[in-house]
Amino acid sequence: MNDKYTETVGLFKALADTHRLMIVDMLSCGELCACKILEKFNITQPTLSHHMKILCDCGLVNGRKEGKWMYYSLNGEKVQEFKNFLYAITIDKDDCICKEGECNCGKK
Questions:
Q1: Is residue 33 a part of any domain in this protein?
Q2: Which residues lie closer than 8 Å to 106 by C-beta, 6 or more apart?
Q3: What is the pLDDT of residue 95?
Q4: In angstroms, rounded to a whole number, what is the distance separating the alpha carbons of residues 40 and 23?
Q5: Above 60 in pLDDT, residue 40?
Q6: How do residues 22-32 score in pLDDT, each as one tens digit?
Q7: Is residue 71 part of a domain?
Q8: Is 103 contained in some domain?
Q9: How many domains are there within the chain?
Q10: Is 44 part of any domain?
Q11: Alpha-carbon distance 10 to 21, whole Å?
């Protein structure tokens, strides 16, 4: 299977959760302290840490520690790569995988 699909599936898995989608939306406005993110949800700090680990591990979110606080921001480069991938798989193009090989059904 093509590496671009394998590499991107982790992003889809990370985003397949309501809380994580909402966190990404919050971070679209800029860097936030974990405490500010936690204020928006009815979850525990360990649960937030779990969500943030998933978002950081897939590369979509950057985390940095300042004193005892964690601050999170979107990884703009990874966000753009994800947008480009989603665009590329949703348009008709000459190198689409549907055009590999021949179909005997008579359809495109």
A1: yes
A2: none
A3: 76
A4: 9
A5: yes
A6: 999 999 999 99
A7: yes
A8: no
A9: 1
A10: yes
A11: 14
Write down the pLDDT at residue 52. Answer: 98
CA distance 11 to 23: 14
Degrees (nearest 5) of the Cα angle 41, 42, 43? Answer: 90
Quote the domain boundaries for residue 52.
3-88
Structure tokens at 55: 């978002």
Q: What mean pLDDT is predicted for residues 24-44?
A: 96
Phi-psi region of 59 (alpha: psi -120 to 50; beta: other; left: phi over 0): left
Q: How confident is the model at residue 2 (pLDDT cuts 50, 70, 90)?
A: confident
* Packed helices 3-15 and 76-88: angle between N→C axes, nearest 10 degrees: 110
CATH of the domain at 83: 1.10.10.10
User: pLDDT tens across 64-105, in order?
Assistant: 999 999 999 999 999 999 999 999 999 888 877 777 765 555
Distances in whole angstroms, Cα of residue 84 to Cα of each of 13, 18, 33, 107:
17, 23, 28, 28
Give me the amino acid identity at 63.
G
Nearest to residue 46, comparing CAs of 31, 32, 34? 34
Two tokens, residue 86: 């989603």
- Report residue 37 CA to chain centroid gap: 17
